[in-house]
């Protein structure tokens, strides 16, 4: 118990970094994902094709590689161009996570938007609603309900993926647990870190379940 009492405050420091990565990624990736989804549905090929390629690259390559590419790539690009465009470690992690998860959210949102029948758009037009009013008042609330389960899976995965930040020496929860593993000469700190991840994901699961129940009136 004494080991646990001394270990938990240490791991809490890393958990704060994990939560920061998690929160900032959602803050940037969800709006970006919605924008990308709209662009992916554009009738103009010059817009649709580059966006499709971006989604393909983000979903087809490891997030670990994307973190490394953004961190070191920005450094070397700045060296060769003479511009100060390099990322520090933490902003590089946020940038990599955001563009990666935006691609996944974009496909989820696109599927949700395209699942709404055209009749609802036509009915809104007959009622005199503008396109923005139709989207935000009629379509978007239904899309949120439909994409919630898939979005929940991505959000829960994000909590665990934050451990990849250690590849460029960002000290989040799992990286700190590995350091404590060496200090304790035991895998005990890793199990304690696992409890942190589990509790966080359990709370998120309960939150999404509550949100689904609240949105049941859209059936």
Give the proportion of residues in helices. Answer: over 70%
SSE pattern, N- to C-terminal? HHHHHHHH
Question: Which CATH architecture is right?
Answer: Orthogonal Bundle
Low-confidence stretches: none
Largest sheet: none
- The total beta strand count reads 0
CATH class annotation: Mainly Alpha
Q: Calculate Rg over CA atoms.
A: 21 Å
Give the integer mean of the pLDDT values.
88
Q: What distance separates the N and C termini? A: 50 Å
Number of domains: 1
Q: According to CATH, what is the topology?
A: MetI-like fold
Large-scale geometry: flat
Our estimate of the beta-strand percent is under 5%
What is the number of helical segments per DSSP (H or I, 4+ residues)? 8
CATH homologous superfamily assignment: MetI-like
Derived structural class:
mainly alpha
What would you say this structure looks like, in words?
The structure is a single chain. The protein is mainly alpha-helical and about 220 residues long. The chain is built from eight helices and no strands. The protein has a single domain (about 1-219), classed as MetI-like fold, CATH 1.10.3720. Helix 5 runs antiparallel to helix 6 and helix 6 packs antiparallel against helix 8. About 25% of the residues are buried.
Primary descriptors:
219 residues; MetI-like fold; 8 helices; 0% strand
In short:
The chain is mainly alpha-helical. It has helices at residues 2-40, 45-60, 63-81, 89-114, 118-126, 131-161, 173-184, 188-214.
Topology:
Elements: H1 2-40, H2 45-60, H3 63-81, H4 89-114, H5 118-126, H6 131-161, H7 173-184, H8 188-214
Helix pairs in contact: 1-4, 1-7, 1-8, 2-4, 3-4, 4-6, 5-6, 6-8, 7-8
């Amino acid at each position: 118990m004494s080991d646990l009492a001394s270990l938990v405050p240490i791991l809490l420091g890393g958990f704060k970094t994990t939560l920061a990565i998690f929160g900032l990624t959602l803050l940037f990736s969800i709006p970006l994902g919605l924008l990308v989804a709209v662009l992916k549905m554009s009738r103009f090929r010059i817009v649709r094709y580059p966006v499709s390629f971006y989604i393909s690259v983000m979903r087809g390559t490891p997030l670990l590689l994307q973190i490394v590419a953004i961190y070191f790539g920005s450094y070397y690009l700045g060296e060769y161009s003479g511009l100060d465009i390099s990322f520090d470690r933490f902003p590089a992690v946020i940038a990599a996570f955001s563009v990666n998860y935006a691609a996944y959210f974009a496909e989820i949102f696109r599927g949700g938007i395209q699942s709404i029948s055209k009749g609802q758009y036509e009915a809104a037009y007959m009622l005199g609603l503008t396109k923005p009013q139709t989207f935000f008042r009629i379509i978007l609330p239904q899309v949120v309900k439909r994409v919630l389960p898939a979005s929940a899976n991505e959000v829960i995965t994000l909590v665990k993926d934050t451990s990849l930040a250690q590849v460029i020496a960002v000290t989040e929860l799992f990286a700190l647990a590995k350091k404590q593993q060496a200090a304790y000469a035991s895998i005990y700190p890793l199990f304690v870190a696992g409890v942190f991840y589990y509790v966080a994901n359990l709370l998120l699961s309960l939150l999404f379940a509550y949100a689904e129940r609240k949105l049941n009136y859209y059936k």
